[in-house]
Amino acid sequence: MLHLRMITPPDRTEAVVSAVESTVGTTHLVVLPGAARDPEGDLVLCDVAREAGDELLHELRQLGIDKDGSIAVENIDLSLSQHADAAEEEAPGEPADAVVWEQLAEATHEESTLTITYAAFMIIATMIAACGVVLDNAVLIVGAMAVGPEFGPLAGVCTGLVQRKPRLAARSLAALLIGFAAAIIATTVFSVVMDAMGLFSEGKLDNPRPNTSFIWQPDPFSFVVALLAGVAGMLSLTSAKAGALVGVAISVTTVPAAANAAVAMSYGEYGQMLGSANQLLLNLGGIMLAGVLTLYAWKLLWRTQRGRWKRRLPRP
User: Cross-referenced Pfam families, in alphabetical order (predicted)?
Assistant: First the structure.
């Protein structure tokens, strides 16, 4: 269930209440006239099944409540109410399959903004991966994958394209490209310093590396894995499931490839550098392609399911 808190201009409160009452899957409607002070207006509260949340939010935005008032949405972790149970039963589909597009856009907006924290995580993850590729250590590679924050911008690009929000897509793409560029430059300097300290060496990079050699040798499986990771990542995001393990899958050949490119650049190993760069671009492209197609398919599937449900409603 979702909890909605709305501040509505008094002249539109009745329209808001009507929209809530006409949306199947809503309950716990509360209206407090004149309760809001900033902005001034009435306070309207309600709970809505996740499956019906996107439809209700669309109607509220058509009424201009987001511009002249306020709409706040919260997830309800626990609701002990027979009314809530009945509302979820009436709503079409299953909660885990429902996509609240406004919530998705807001989540990807927060995760895809280029910040100091995002850049720091990207640089640290790439440096950890650099240690992993030089030492051919799978544990360090997995650790770098867990730290890498690139899933947010990747999801932002996909959401922006599907929702036709060019600013979100452009901002996410900029965060992704600038983040990787900064990480590669910083890791190249890091590799030079580690070599000066005797901890890295060109010989270690050229030695057989059975655990990490795939990072700079892209093949058809690389693209297949990228497609599967993109689908899994978007499903995790749209269903509001915990995405920690999905984030690791997304990073399989992105952060490690950037790290291998940086270390190879520091030693003038341009063959490995180009191979790693190709691996990075191949996987980023595959993940975004799969993410966009998954969101389009999810939107079409949900629209078809909702259309069938509406046709089954009894005529007044």
Answer: DUF389 (PF04087)
Q: CB under 8 Å to 169, separation ≥6 — which residues?
A: 156, 157, 159, 160, 161
Compute how many other C-beta atoms are within 10 angstroms of the C-beta atom of residue 192.
Answer: 16
What pLDDT shows up at residue 316? 42
pTM: 0.81
Handedness of CA 48, 50, 53, 55 (dihedral sign): negative
Nearest to 193 by CA among 140, 255, 263: 263
Buried b (16+ CB within 10 A) or exposed e, 53-87: bbbbbebbeebebeeebbbebeeeeeeeeeebeeb
φ and ψ at residue 211, rounded to 5 degrees: -85, -25
Digit-coded pLDDT (tens) for 14-52: 999 999 999 889 999 999 999 999 999 999 999 999 888
Q: Are 150 and 180 in contact (CB under 8 A)?
A: yes
DSSP letter assigned to residue 10 = G
What does the pLDDT look like over 99-142, one tens digit per residue? 787 778 777 777 788 999 999 999 999 999 999 999 999 899 98
Q: Look at residue 241 in the predicted model and tell me its pLDDT.
A: 52
Measured between its terminal Cα atoms, the distance across the chain in Å is 27
Residues 209 and 20: their CA atoms lie apart, in Å, by 60
Maximal CA-CA distance, the chain: 80
Instruction: Decide yes or no: CATH 1.20.1080 for domain 103-302.
Output: yes
- CB distance 4 to 36 below 8 Å: no
| Segments making up each domain of the chain, as ranges | 2-98, 103-302
The DSSP bridge pattern shows strands 40-48 and 70-75 to be unpaired
